[in-house]
Write a structure and sequence with these properties.
By secondary structure, the chain is of the alpha+beta class. Helix content is 24%, strand content 37%. Strands 1, 2, 3, 4, 5, 6, 7, 8 and 9 form a 9-stranded mixed beta sheet that branches. The protein starts with a strand and ends in a 6-residue tail after the last helix.
Amino acid sequence: MTFSLALCLDAPMQSWGIQSRFTVRETTTEPTKSGVVGLLGAALGIHRDDTERLSQLARLRMGVRVDREGILERDYHTAQNVPTTAGTGHRTVISQRYYLADALFLVVLEDDGPTLLQQAAEALRHPHWPLCFGRKSFVPARPLLRTGEGDQDDLRTGAAVQEKPLQDVLTEHPWLETRSSIHQRNLAAIDAGEVIALRTMVECPPATPGAQSRRDQPISWARDDRRFATRTVLSGQVPLTPALIAAGEPCS
């Protein structure tokens, strides 16, 4: 049996870096595996040097559906009085930090049993540490778990975990967009015959045709032993349908 947990990642600003170095901090165009595992680790209260517990989260299969493409933005930072590497004085450091503005993602995690996903879901409702999307100031704009279905008792018992494969959740989960004006505009476009597709990025076996490499599979986050491995993902599309739009949660 296969079980899945769907997360809503919505924030004014998000940053998901893989190759950030020194004065240039980049971001990918969708959440990284390391970033999502870190998010779950914060919710569960797992310390960065607890490699065993983090590895349990890292083995979850992950898929992403882009419900709203973000706008790539750049911050220009200047830090003064930074000690030199030689320790002989201070200097001014200029850095460029990229982030996504107004992005919205459906992230789906898959496992062969419900227990770990249910633990993660409960922790996301009552996180041990504050949650953020890549930087401490990039906080969620709404709950990560959709609460539009079922009562609170159902939610507490793990109803967020579904007995279905990741790909089915990506295809069937209600659209996360909340703006009624956007709903109406897309419904009109679909009625006029336009095909609207939501981009997906799904973890896959290395031999899958068209697979792309991502060096964001966490191995260790210990302060003196940060290591990541390469995983493979496959880019795809999910059609946006009137049913997905109608099942969404418009609020304005």
